Amino acid sequence: GTESALHGGSAESFPYAIAKRGTECMVQGLAREGAADGILVNGLRFGYIASGFHQRWHKRTEADMKDRAQMVPLKRGGEPEEAAALMVYLLSGWAGFITGQMIPLTGGDWL
């Protein structure tokens, strides 16, 4: 899911937001189904990750990307490595009591 899905997306991304909300329902349903067997299911709700996706998808310039980063309370986009580290944590034994959650990685975006 993405953080924008919580807010219904924009006029251009309404179908995308619906699909992401469906993903969130799937995560919760699968978590309920798998819990008795010790199967953990979680999802990540990304905000602005500076991976190039936003630039390609929205056809944004470097200046647009810098402007977008300034909208995030931490004044930067998340790094792909930060997203990967969260995924590794969720796959580790340290996250054995987390299931059915959509975990935001947003830098405070949408606060």
Characteristic key phrases:
single chain, 111 residues, mainly alpha, Rossmann fold, two-stranded parallel ribbon, 2 strands, 7% strand
Question: What's the short version?
Answer:
With 111 residues, the protein is mainly alpha-helical.
How would you describe this protein?
By secondary structure, the chain is mostly helical. The chain has one domain (3-105): 3-Layer(aba) Sandwich (Rossmann fold). The protein is 44% helix and 7% strand. It is built from 4 helices and 2 strands, in the order αβαααβ. The chain has helices at residues 14-35, 53-57, 62-71, 80-91, and strands at residues 43-46, 102-105. It has a two-stranded parallel sheet with strand order 1-2. The longest helix is centred in the N-terminal third of the chain and has 22 residues, at 14-35. The two termini are 17 Å apart. The mean pLDDT is 89.
